[in-house]
Amino acid sequence: MSNSIVYLRSVAGRDVHDVVRELFEALDYRRLIPADCRVAIKVNLSTPYAENAAASNTSPEILDAVCGLVRERTPHVVVGESNGMRYATEDAFEVSGYYPVLERHGVRAVNFSKDEWVDVGERLIKGWGLPKSLVEADVFITLPVLKTHATTVFTGALKNQFGCYPQHNRILLHPKLDRVLVLINRLLKPRIALMDGILAMEGRGPINGRPRRFDAVLASADPVALDATAMRLVGLDPTTSRHVVWAARDGLGAIDPERIAVDGDFEGMRAQFEPAEKDLPIKALALISRSRFLTEKLILNPESFYPLRSAAMRFRDVRDFLLGLVGQKRARGTP
């Protein structure tokens, strides 16, 4: 017998609000969200820039639908995200059009980086702390975007919680990224995970990949099963994403397909996403992030970071140009 259920729906030709309500009804959201409880909703905000916000950030339509349903149960609702390495949460809220949505539903926006930080007594994250609004929430809901990821292969219901660490320099946690992802999910215990795959991302995600219209929304009370199913849906092997494997081993959910029931047209919606290539700049970043000293000097320091980013972009441009020439020669039959 299956231990977990993942619900999969297409929004093609359908209203997003209707689809989200159908998913919440399938999850029995009235049972999962007790009346008058405190609810914290974690959106996925990866960028404050309009040119790639649509595929990087949780869509305002999804947020609108979820807020409307949650407000049926309780007035005590917050929606939050932490500051990025070089941008404020408020800017990301603004670019994704969240403020009118939250105002309409009477929901409070929270910048977790400005919230009171609480020491949860975990040695693995000693000195980091978690936002009080998350620690004190009765129900935690996560709203990730379906994206490939250059570091973790895939980012979804589990990886979205990395933004619950409120420090803007949480890249310093990257040497133990998989362990801190498992920990934060064990601490927050997502009650509902709803994945926005309407405009997903493939390639060099979670920000610089290619937007892909996928028209899919997935939901589950099991974030591990949700990630594993979403990965299989887009042609990725869940066992290649270490934090998903470790979360399953830690008992946070199911990864094996025989333990997951999929309610929806899985075969009809199945696709092949291009994975994120771990090219030379990505490998270099991974090596740098192993050292706190190098991370602080090269990545967190704007005077070093922007020249390095420019060099990485030039490297990719030259590489792609040369590969293009090789491809043209092969097409013409030139040795």
Structure in a nutshell:
By secondary structure, this protein is α/β, with parallel strands linked by helices. The chain has one domain (4-277): 3-Layer(aba) Sandwich (Rossmann fold).
Please give a structural write-up.
The protein is an alpha/beta fold and 335 residues long. The chain has one domain: Rossmann fold (3-Layer(aba) Sandwich), CATH 3.40.50.11440. Helix content is 41%, strand content 19%. The strands form two sheets. Strands 1, 2, 3, 4, 7, 8, 9, 10, 11 and 12 form a ten-stranded mixed beta sheet that branches. Strand 10 and strand 11 form a beta hairpin. Helix 1 packs across helix 4. The chain is globular, with a radius of gyration of 20 Å. The mean pLDDT is 93.
Name the descriptors.
335 residues; ten-stranded mixed sheet; Rossmann fold; 41% helix; alpha/beta; 14 helices; two-stranded antiparallel ribbon
